[in-house]
Design brief:
heterodimer, A: 8-stranded mixed β-sheet, 8 strands, globular, B: alpha/beta, 2 domains, 8-stranded mixed β-sheet, about 40% helix
């Protein structure tokens, strides 16, 4: 292992069945924080293309303590018992991670960083736990505005594959239009009643997002970093975030960055490297030094 | 499941040990993951395979090769010789942990190839299960290049700068060094020499694994595999495919020895 850090397994929870890996620095930064990294979608704690491993090792090399962990039921962690909703269970699991680092490493301040669903969970944690002084949200939530839909449809219309699908009858737009027509004519689809179709993922409501942002930023003074890739078009409409975040602008505690060339999971090593370098900056970011929204 | 690190301090390997339901069992399996871009999509299936084997009284060690998963190093530092050493260490670790006397290596994709190569170098295991093995390294490289070309041409928002400034050759985010490329190009299991080792080949009908199975060993059984190619990247991070039929058949083969 690198001389700059060492990695160890940590088992969390009352049953010791939640798996985490802690990266300890060889030399602790005078203002060391605990960096929490978690699952993105179903991918286990190492993150897509080992993104969490890169971020954890980079943070540890800079003198911080990093923990990448599997939430209950993900990766190598046992499923949760107790019937909590996903977000509630995730917050409980991350708090266990913070408690562990507080007890074993004496840390009191934390940074929660996650991609996609991990970003949503990080924000929720920041809203609920004042120990989180910074949340790094990579391709987090979005919410629906007129421009959101326009951008989504424009993206599809510009793709050759979309037109091919349209002609062959397997197109999102064609299905969407069909649904609208059926709704207008009050026609019940044939498949209905033969078994429930899975519920599609729902965009979180803007009001819920901003409630979390308000709790985190205003109530707890958490710094928020929102980093957007150039991946799915609906993640990249930065302007639509501004009105919601405007009330917090004066606090200087929300930072937006865009990685327009990267895909959603920062697949190429060049893009991961750019994200890791930015992560260094974000860990050192203090609101006085960097203005929000450029 | 007991997760832990093993190996040298400067080359740590992450392992996950699944104890057999019957602690007195002397049967053990070391699972060898695919490498690079094929590692993540296949992870849930191999994890489930470990759980099933352990329930069937088999001690199991899953582990990450150097430069993969939670193990130390970067993928670009990997090489075939070192990875075979990692596999030997994993076998020794399992034998030491669980008093295992009969070891089966179960590898998926290039993990299967590594397992075969390591067994060719010396008697490492008593049985071998090769799941969709890569038999032709040059063909595998060509396949990876096509995958990367397709990705950079169609999936990246604006690929030029990243491709120009990135590593010389990478496959969906995994840099292939010149040395590794040369090693991969030289891999060819098709003409033998065959191993005198009970071997199971799990392969799609018509694939190279099925067509060339007799080159792999004197005592080869074939299990046709018709479920999803779980090692191929899934567009969604929110879905995982676990091929139940193959896992059941593999478990039965290991237990039935």
């Amino acid at each position: 292992m690198s001389a700059r850090f060492v990695e160890r397994v940590a088992l969390l929870g009352p049953e010791q069945d939640q798996v985490a890996v802690v990266s300890d620095p060889a030399t602790r930064h005078p203002e060391a924080v605990g960096v929490l990294l978690m699952n993105a979608g179903l991918i286990h704690r190492v993150g897509p293309n080992r993104l969490n491993v890169d971020l954890a090792r980079h943070a540890a090399s800079a003198g911080h303590v990093a923990m990448r962990l599997d939430l209950a039921g993900f990766g190598d962690s046992a499923p949760a018992v107790g019937g909590l909703r996903f977000e509630e269970g995730a917050v409980r699991d991350l708090r266990r991670g913070m408690d562990y680092l507080a007890e074993t490493r004496g840390l009191t301040r934390f940074v929660a960083a996650g991609l996609c669903s991990g970003a949503d969970v990080s924000l929720k944690l920041a809203a609920e736990d004042p120990r989180v002084e910074q949340a790094v949200l990579i391709d987090p939530f979005s919410y629906e505005t007129r421009l959101f839909w326009l951008q989504g449809y424009a993206h599809r219309l510009l793709r050759r594959e979309s037109w091919s699908s349209f002609i062959h009858g397997d197109s999102y737009i064609r299905h969407a239009l069909g649904d609208r027509v059926r709704q207008a004519l009050n026609i019940v689809p044939e498949a209905e009643g033969q078994g429930a179709a899975p519920e599609p993922w729902q965009q979180p409501e803007a009001s819920r997002i901003f409630e979390c942002v308000s709790d985190a930023v205003v109530k707890h003074g958490t710094r928020l970093v929102l980093a957007y890739s150039g991946g799915p078009a609906w993640y990249n409409y930065l302007a639509h975030l501004r009105p919601g975040f405007q009330p917090h602008k004066h606090t200087g505690r929300v930072l937006l960055e865009r990685f327009a060339e990267a895909d959603h999971t920062f697949t190429l090593s060049y893009h991961r490297q750019a994200l890791v370098q930015a992560f260094d900056r974000w860990l050192a970011w203090r609101p006085e030094a960097v203005p929000s929204f450029g | 499941m007991h997760p832990f690190y093993f190996g040298r301090a400067d080359r740590p390997l992450f392992g996950a040990y699944h104890a057999a339901a019957n602690p007195h069992s002397t049967k053990g399996v070391v699972l060898v993951h695919p490498f690079g871009h094929e590692y993540f999509p296949a992870y849930p299936a191999l994890q489930q395979l470990a759980v099933r084997l352990a329930r069937a009284d088999v001690h199991v060690l899953r582990f990450d090769l150097y430069g993969a998963g939670d193990s130390g190093g970067d993928f670009g530092e990997g090489g075939l010789e070192q990875w075979q050493d990692d596999l030997r260490l994993a076998v020794e670790e399992l034998q030491a942990m669980a008093q295992v006397r009969e070891v089966t290596l179960v590898g998926l994709r290039f993990g299967a190839t590594l397992a075969w190569l390591a067994c060719r170098e010396g008697r490492l295991a008593q049985r071998l299960a090769l799941w969709a093995p890569v038999l032709d390294g040059a063909g595998y490289l060509a396949e990876m290049r096509a995958l990367e070309d397709n990705y950079t041409s169609h999936a990246l928002p604006a690929p030029r700068e990243a491709v120009a400034r990135g590593p010389r050759f990478e496959v969906l985010g995994y840099p292939i060094s010149e040395a590794l490329e040369a090693e991969l190009a030289a891999v060819d299991l098709r003409p033998g020499p065959a191993l005198d080792l009970p071997t199971l080949v799990v392969a799609r009908p018509g694939s190279e694994g099925e067509v060339h199975r007799y080159d792999l060993g004197f005592r080869v059984e074939l299990l046709p595999y018709e479920e999803a190619c779980i090692w191929l990247k899934n567009e969604s991070m929110n879905e995982a495919v676990v091929p139940s039929g193959a896992l059941t058949a593999l478990t039965e083969w290991v237990v039935g020895s």
